[in-house]
């Protein structure tokens, strides 16, 4: 776990930006970060008096972390257009061309380095699970680190789409529901495929003979079985058998492509939560309704055998 000094280092680059605005009494209002994409937006309140507009010829802000000045709003909530320009890696403002307002809100957009996000947010890998004959439950736990320190800088911090990867086991769902006939077809097909990558000609011949024998005795072809597995592991189908405790919601769902046995071993499921300083942590369960999913597999296979 990062120490307080590590957390402070997270915001060093932000303080560098603040330093260049010091004549205007800068105050950080809020920061929004998308954890998945690392994209961020910072809002900074400035007080630029008319006397400062006359006294300060220009302000130059180095584009730290590739941040851009995306918007400037005055105290009447009107957007201030065409006052910032980008030149040689710096954002430049000439205060004298600003309107009569003295209070402004500047928004900067950019990308937060991944190592900074990893220091800001703690994610507990969803490894432990509770099992019953009907359900598998995976514990989810994420939180913003060192909230007290962050509150000294920001009045508002939002970190959206904090995504936890959950590896939901499905191999037994398939192995216990697939009939022996279909397993034999899959096994024969896999044996033929493995033999094709080898140099043992006799094994290639035996595997081919076995494949013809097994598929000839079956009403279902190997392509139909593989297609069934593919369809049963589509994200939109699998999502029907998942439940998530709030504040989590489902993100991307996909089949883990590499598996050594007859069937997929796991589905990769993203659980996403939005964190902020008022709700800095998110806990709960992802529940897999495996008994219902197995019934889905059985019904699907029954349709193939008709």
How would you characterize the overall build of this protein?
The radius of gyration is 29 Å and the shape is elongated. It has helices at 4-10, 12-20, 50-55, 114-120, 147-151, 171-175, 180-197, 201-217, 222-232, 235-238, 290-305; strands at residues 27-34, 39-47, 59-62, 68-74, 84-87, 90-93, 103-111, 121-124, 129-131, 136-144, 156-169, 242-244, 249-255, 266-276, 281-288. The protein is of the alpha+beta class. Helix 7 (180-197) runs antiparallel to helix 8 and helix 9 (222-232) runs antiparallel to helix 11. The strands form 3 sheets. The chain has a 7-stranded mixed beta sheet. Strands 8, 9, 10, 12 and 15 form a 5-stranded antiparallel beta sheet that branches. A 3-stranded antiparallel beta sheet has the order 3-6-5, with no helix packed on it. The chain folds into 2 domains: 4-114, Immunoglobulin-like (Sandwich); 125-306, no CATH class. The model has no long low-confidence stretch (mean pLDDT 84).
How many DSSP-defined strands? Answer: 15
N/C terminus separation: 57 Å
Written as H for each helix and E for each strand, in order along the chain, the element string is HHEEHEEEEEHEEEHEHHHHHEEEEH
Please tell me how large the radius of gyration is: 29 Å
Described by its quaternary structure, the protein is: single chain
Q: Could you describe the largest sheet, including whether it forms a barrel?
A: 7 strands, mixed
Which structural category fits the helices and strands? Answer: alpha+beta
Number of distinct helices: 11
Strand content: 25-35%
Strand order of the largest sheet: 4-7-2-1-11-14-13
- The helix content is 25-40%
Broad shape: elongated
Q: Are there runs of 5+ residues with pLDDT below 50, and where?
A: none
Number of spatially distinct domains: 2
What average pLDDT do the residues reach? 84
């Amino acid at each position: 776990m990062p120490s307080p000094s590590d957390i402070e280092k997270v915001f060093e680059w932000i303080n560098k930006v603040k330093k260049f605005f010091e004549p205007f009494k800068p105050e950080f209002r809020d920061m929004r970060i998308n954890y998945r994409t690392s994209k961020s937006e910072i809002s900074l309140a400035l007080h630029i008096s008319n006397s400062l507009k006359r006294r300060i010829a220009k302000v130059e802000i180095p584009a730290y972390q590739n941040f851009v000045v995306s918007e400037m709003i005055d105290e009447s909530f009107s957007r201030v257009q065409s006052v910032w320009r980008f030149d040689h890696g710096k954002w430049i403002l000439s205060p004298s061309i600003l309107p009569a307002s003295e209070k402004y809100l500047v928004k900067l957009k950019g990308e937060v380095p991944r190592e900074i996000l990893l220091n800001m947010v703690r994610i507990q890998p969803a490894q432990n699970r509770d099992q019953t004959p009907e359900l598998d439950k995976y514990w989810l736990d994420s939180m913003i680190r060192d909230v007290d320190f962050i509150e000294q800088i920001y009045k508002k911090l939002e970190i959206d789409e904090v995504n936890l990867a959950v590896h939901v086991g499905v191999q037994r769902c398939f192995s216990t529901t697939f009939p022996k006939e279909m397993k034999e077809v899959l096994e024969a097909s896999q044996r033929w495929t493995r033999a094709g990558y080898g140099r043992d000609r006799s094994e290639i011949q035996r595997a081919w003979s076995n494949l013809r024998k097994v598929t000839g005795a079956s009403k279902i072809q190997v392509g139909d079985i593989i297609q069934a597995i593919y369809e049963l592991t589509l994200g939109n189908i699998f999502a029907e058998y998942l439940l998530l405790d709030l504040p989590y919601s489902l993100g991307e769902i996909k089949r883990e492509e590499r598996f050594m046995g007859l069937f997929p071993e796991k589905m990769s499921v993203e659980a996403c939560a939005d964190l902020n300083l008022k709700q800095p942590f998110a806990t709960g369960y992802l529940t897999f309704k495996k008994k219902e999913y197995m019934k889905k597999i059985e019904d699907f296979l029954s349709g193939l055998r008709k």
